[in-house]
Structure formats: structure tokens, C-alpha cells
Amino acid sequence: MPLNGLLGEDAGAAPQQVRAEPIQQRSAARLSGLLDAAAAVVDEVGFDRITTAMIAERAGASIGTVYRYYPDRVAVLHALHERAVVRFRQRVVDELGASTLTTWWDAVDCVVTAFVGLYRSEPGFRIVNFDDRDGAPAADAAADVDFFARRLADVLVNEFNLPAGPELIFRLEVAVEMADALLARAFHSEPLGEERFIAECRLVLREYLDRYYSPRALSLLAAAS
Amino acid sequence: MPLNGLLGEDAGAAPQQVRAEPIQQRSAARLSGLLDAAAAVVDEVGFDRITTAMIAERAGASIGTVYRYYPDRVAVLHALHERAVVRFRQRVVDELGASTLTTWWDAVDCVVTAFVGLYRSEPGFRIVNFDDRDGAPAADAAADVDFFARRLADVLVNEFNLPAGPELIFRLEVAVEMADALLARAFHSEPLGEERFIAECRLVLREYLDRYYSPRALSLLAAAS
DNA sequence: TGGTCACCGAGTGGAATTCAATCATCGTGG
DNA sequence: CCACGATGATTGAATTCCACTCGGTGACCA
Lengths: 225, 225
What we know:
The first copy, chain A, is mainly alpha-helical. Chain A contains 9 helices and no strands.
């Protein structure tokens, strides 16, 4: 049941930064086409060199069409980021469903595998590292991490009986920040990712969480209470 | 001797991205004044909303003056980044000198303290997270991390007899990436930094490195060879 | 006083964004 | 089944904003 709780309460709802809901059929294709184009451009020039003209041309649309759907350039990046996050959560759910999970560690491992897989296969996935440092409190990288940590905590509590509570959420936040950093580094220059950083990421996560949630630590905790 | 090796071989040399060496006296003040202004603006609007006009106005100069010293907008950011890195290294050296170091852990702790201290006191210090995602292979965040990891490795090898080698450097790179991420998160919204993330950062670093370099691990390593 | 050094800020060009005109699609009445 | 108006969708020239240039002017020095 909570396995796909990761998808979030608003999964499927249109992102709020789009200007106009598509009414007609073709618009939906336009919208995702624009994002596909943006993703391709992101892979080519990086997400700060991107121009609205590049996106429009790549999508076979005109400048005006971009602005019909998005209020400005960074809104497109936000939307692309959001789509990447949604696809990541979906992939985690798929991965979790496809694996036989015996301990919480298997679940954490799946998360890493999903992330790495998307880095390799999803065009423009590096957009997940996009953080708009302006006043907007929404669409904040920390909020994404926080949300994901809470959902993952639910899964680990319900499936593997980890003790629920703010400590678990906090530790998962820490774990996610570390994994983000190490995997970003792994893919910094190598398109397929430097394996040493990926492996070290898994190791670090396991060691960090094992400190509190290994069978031994848990039984000690149980004995103490 | 290697304690201030952290400063780097080119410490003191003018950054190469400055257009004209200041000849007259007042120019030096202008140059650092421009960077101070840029730092202030970075704190106000973040380093992607910054405009050359803002920098010039804040520094009491004109647009042209900015371009007299820096070839373009990102060069200013690079220079500010560079200054922050240099000050960080200087602070680490100061901190190392002022503390009584009994184990390598004390040195690592000093590094964290220096970083946190600068985040709190140095205007615009968040520029350390600035990464120019374009073709320029120099001025690369990963290169900074790599360079710093090597220097820190030298210190730990010479002062605390840690075993030299690529493993040490790699592990320090990993440690630096993790610390960067956790401290950036600590200061993401709180100007003074969320203490829980700072404390957890120290803990994580210690646990991670202890796995290989605790006295026990080292003696096991020595016995095996 | 002539020769640099510094500085200024209007001007240029390119990219972001707007908007009035045009095209496409849909629902509806004939 | 076919006009045909209403509304959605698209266009791209015009506008605005901002990085960056450059010729002119004052400041320092010898």
C-alpha cells in the first residue's frame, strides 16, 4: 500500500507553473514536446546556456508558443525539473516492486539504482540539480528532499518496521543530501557515471544508516526501551 | 611545513581572469571594492539574479569600470568564488595553527569549523557553491574539491601519519562532497546554519573516515602488511 | 606639458518577453 | 452534412532588458 505513496499526493495533477491548461488534444503533445526539447537542449548546452529560442526551434514551435505555456524561461526549467522528479519517484516505485526486498537496505539500494538509471537514460536528467536561488519558497530543492525523505520514511516504517519519528526523517534527509552530492559528482564529467563514486555512495548510505537501523542497533534499541 | 601548503601554489598571484593589473594605488581598492559589492549583491539576490549594473552601482562605479577589470559577468563571479576559496584555505590554516591537534580528526574538525565560520561571517560566501556549467575545464567545482582533497591529504599524511595514496585522496574527495552538501543544506534557509545539519556533518565525516583511519583500523592495516 | 592610467555612460547587439493578428478546432443550428 | 461563429492555439515582429563596447574626459605621473 504505501509503496507507491512515494508518488506524492499531487502526482498527476498539472504543475502549477503552467500558464494555460491544455484543452485541446494537440496541446498536450505540444507541452510535453516543449519539455522534451528543453531536455535535449539541457544535455547539449547545460541548463544555464539554454535559450527560449533553442527550445522553441527544437520543438518545432515558435517563441510565442513557449510563452503560452510557461510564464518565463525558468518556469520551463522548473517544469522540466518537476517532471524529472516525478519520473524518479515513479522509477523508484517500479524498482521497489520489481525487486525482492528483504531488508530496508534493499529499498535504499533501489533508490540509488533508480537515480543512477535515470541519470543514464533520461535526457536532461541533470536538471534535478537545478535550484533557483530566488525568493520563491515553493519549488525549493530542500523541500523536494524533505518531501521525498518523508515518503521514504513511511515506506521503511511500514515495510521494515523501522522506528517512525522525526529522527528517521532527519537521517533520511541527510542521506538524500549526501547521495545527491555523490551521484552528482559521479556524473559530473562521465556521462555514464564514475563507478567509484556510485559504489561509495551505496557504501556511505549503508554505513550511515546501519549505525541506527542495523538489526543489531535495532535490537539494542528495543532492549533499552 | 605542509600546514600552509593548503594555500596552494598560486596563492597571492592575481587571478588570471582579471583583465588589467592595477598599476596605480586606487585601482587595488576598486578591484576589491567591486568584489565586496558583488558579495553583497550575492547575499541579496543570489548569484544568478546578479546584474553588472547592480555590482557597479553598489560599488559606486560605472558599468565600464566593471569591464575594465573583468572580461564578463561570470568572470566576476569566478573571481569572487576564487577569493572565497582562498579565504577559506587561509582560515583553515589559521584554525589549524590555533588549535592543539592530537589526531587527524582534530584537523578535519577544524576544516568544518572554518567553513561554517565563513558561511556565517563572510558576505556572499555561498558563492563557493557556484559552478559554471560550460566548456571551460578550468574553474571547475570538481577540480577545486580535488585540489583541496590533495592538499588536505598531504597534511594528514605528514602530521598524523595517515597512509598516503590515491585511496586517501579519493576518500577525502568523497568526504568533501558530503560535507559541502550537508553544510550547504544547513545554510540553505537559516543564515546562521541549522545546527543539526552541522553536527551531523561532523559526525558523518568522522564515522566515514574512522572506518579506514581510526587507530584500530590503522593498527589492523599495519598488522596485515 | 605630454603620456599613460582610470573612469564614465550612451550606444550596440542579442536574448527574453509581449501582443495583436492569424489559423485550427469545436459545438451548434439550419 | 454543412456553414459559421466562438474559442483555443500559434505565430513572429516589436519591445524591453541586460551584457558588453568604445570613444571621450578627467586624474596621476615624470
